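Thread title: Can someone regenerate the structure for this chain?

I was given the following input by a collaborator and told the matching structure tokens would be attached. They weren't. Posting the sequence so someone can regenerate them.
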Amino acid sequence: MKFLITGCGGFVGRYLCEELESEEHEVVCMGYQESEASELEALDVTKLDEVRVIFDTERPDAVLHLAGLSRATHDTLSRALAVNVCGSVNVARAAQEVSAHGVVVNACYVYKPVPGALGEDAELAPSTLYGITRLAMEQAVRLTAAPEMLTLVRAFNHTGPVQSDDFLVPSLVQRALAVRAGDRSELEYWLGSPVRDVSDVRDIVRAYRLLAESRVCGTYNVGSGVGRSVREIVAIVCREVGIPESVSREKLLEAPAADSVLARRRGSPPSSLVAS
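Best answer:
Regenerated them for you:
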């Protein structure tokens, strides 16, 4: 099969390209900026004419749409809406025009954080601006693509080598390494110990590949189904880095930029986002 992937310049994109190529699929890798080193072609998904030209030229069997901003603040909201919502609609329109099946990757932040596991029919009530852009994207894509040509994926947290320390696990690892090096005395983490479903990115992209190959339609959560509190993740990080867990301390902190759901008001219950 021939796959076109958007967002290949990001953390997950490089792993997805490798996964598809390992199965001998033909892969067209698109990113916001061109890169000769990684054979990455430039594509700005907010420009419909540009997106249409790529799809008309490449004629893929399916598109795996990863492109999007992984955070949104009041200062960046307009750009996040342009990329996450309008850009996704552009990709869906172009895919429809060449009869390419669409696998649109969304995020678990569309759900209302609640205790316990979340099925695909769980309440959609995002608690962050980022989640709002993601829910708007999903709703807009549903109005654009034919249901029989669309697979919607709600991915839960994932991590792996080369992930930015804007994200939960790498940020904890960086703090732990600083403690081991003597550059800080404590590993501080977020008050309330929120619960997250964190998978290896290589398992996540394998699921994306299987969904794309099957051309199955509908909405699917992709995650491990196992919830771990930040406190439990801290314990794992301490063990792997080789520092005593006793140096870790729960504190009211600003969350990593990519997981603002971690932030909470003192006295409010910990948030939980776990796939069923």
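The mean pLDDT is 89.
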